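Components:
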Amino acid sequence: MATEVILPKLGATMEEGTIISWRKRQGEATTQGEPLFEVETDKVVMEVEAPASGILRRVLADAGSVVPVGQVIAIIVRPGEEVPEHPARAPILPPADTPLPTGTSHGAAIAVPSVQEGVIASPAAKKLAREHGVDLSGLTGSGPGGRIVEKDVEQAIATRRSFEGERVRSPQAAAGKAVPVSRLRRKTAQRMTESFQSIPHFYLTVEVGADNLTALRETLRHSVEAEGGSRLSFTDLFVRHVALTLQEHPLVNACWQNQEIRWNPDINIGIAVATPDGLIVPVIHQADTLTLVQIADERTRLELEAKEQRLAVHSVQGATFTITNLGPFGVDAFSPIINPPQAAILAIGRIARRAVERQGALSLAPTVFLTLAADHRILDGAEAAGFLRDLKGRIERAEI
Amino acid sequence: MTTREISYRDAIREALFEEMRRDPDVFMIGEDIARFGGPMKVTEGLLAEFGDRRVVDTPIAEAGFVGIGVGAALTGLRPVIEVMFNDFILLAMDQIINQAAKARYMFGGKAKVPMVIRPHAGAGRGMAAQHSQCLHMLFVQIPGLIVVAPSTPSDAKGLMKSAIRSDDPVIFFENKLLYSTKGPVPDGDYTVPLGVADVKRPGRDVVIISTSRMTAFALGAAQVLAKEGIEAEVIDPRTLKPLDMETILRSVRRIKRVVIVDEGSRTGGFTSEIAARIMDEAFDSLDAPIQRVAAEDAPIPYCRTLEAEAIPQERDIVAAVKRLL
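Structure:
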């Protein structure tokens, strides 16, 4: 039976996608679960796997085409099978103006099955997935009609285990060898290169007094833990301060897209998280509307899911501003690379007691260096400086 | 335990002989069972040994002789009634459903109806729509009845002995195409308990639950599948009511893929009932939708070619299994 290849809905807000490339040519054999094509949404670029095994026929959307979600873009038939009659090419929008990929790079590590909505899985598969915390939306079903069956979940669990085993292997074993990198590593490499080469970065650094900030954390730590159960980190406080400051500086929260500036209605803050497999930037959505307890809970959950590689697509999409904190690694200050299409990224260094001038005398007080990397196409120095000045003031006053 | 290879027909006859010798209250009644030895030759020889007071020929009057059986059972005898084709049992439905099945309940347990009715069912002989049905489901629906449908000679003998010894009315479905099939039957007096299923073939990849003659087809299908590396487990419930869900569920929970095969109608049939029970009790174990293989919703055709299309065949079972994997 012929299987239609449909452009899947990869995120709650996705309405169309751009076909970046086909991994198979028309007439070529494909196996269910193999990467079939790469699609770009406004948020992310992803590989989509073949929904069935067979021969790829009737590719209806060439690379570069913009296709609405749910559109049939190709047919997979069994060898020898006739290609079924299909309505003439449904309207496919002309290729997008700009081939420059946009969106966060990090969702790319997540494989997405070709299902439009909901997940078709057997009860046994669902039960096993529930028991092992496997996200079924990340699996491709091998059962009839692409149904996820128990075996698929078992394989996902086994893969996860072997992957975990891989990580602890000593790097010495690879010394002197060229080792193929993970998809995440490759994506990070590609996107960061693109960003650094195409975005005119400029950097502003300020030293911010952290007396009140550290005092505030001490004061709130226990009540936050009591209320939400999560540990209150400095990152949480920075997320809150940044989110409130962004309300007053919407241009810093904007995006560069197709030679235009897009003003984002929400303040969604990405937090760079180092995982053994690479950099992931989970997103705290509408961070300006959340309490500190909610931010701490959300950040704790996202970090855990990032480390366990089970972040949902939604959790890595839609950031409008990014925070990267290398303070815990002992870094004083650093210059980050913008996560496109965002306007800016904030680098946070370590909080340390440093010599400060107070009332004409030198003394030691906790301070932190904040570095804002800004996209000069969107922001000019004065605007970026204004944001940083207000952020500094807010942190020094510990106004939450 | 030593066994002998005997036919399904002979196995049932042995059970009748042994039970009539064991218990003088057991008697046979039905059309052509005495002098003629039974239309399927199951009762051959009984008249000579037990005489015409215990092996009774009747006119063609199903409601009458089934009614005699119900009355005799209420007085303490143990009638075994042959009704020939199960298609003819319909004439006696009031006696069975309103009288035999209800008496024990309506008399507060003070009356009982220890009676066995022996219809034979099934298509495959080109006997057309009124002589080929599988009507067991009509009785499975009725509280108060026990319904049995053995698939092998040894089950047939052991279950017949249990049926005769049961104090409740038992509808004992034989299958006309199984009468001449042979199989090992244990020597001596043994019974097969009512309400206990049997795993006819252990397997790993799919559970096939099959009744009566369909069990032979299921075992044939299992052999075909085994050549492709698919190991099917075959379960014969043997007693359709009460149903041994425990045995079925044990396999379903382990194997998680199920095909149910029955020669009765697909709609509202025995396959529907088992499928529903599995959904109720083992939903989370299912790794695929339950597949049902049953008779088409049509009168059984006289034409042999069409008849074969109307009822399940081995290849249908193989195809159903493949839909699951």
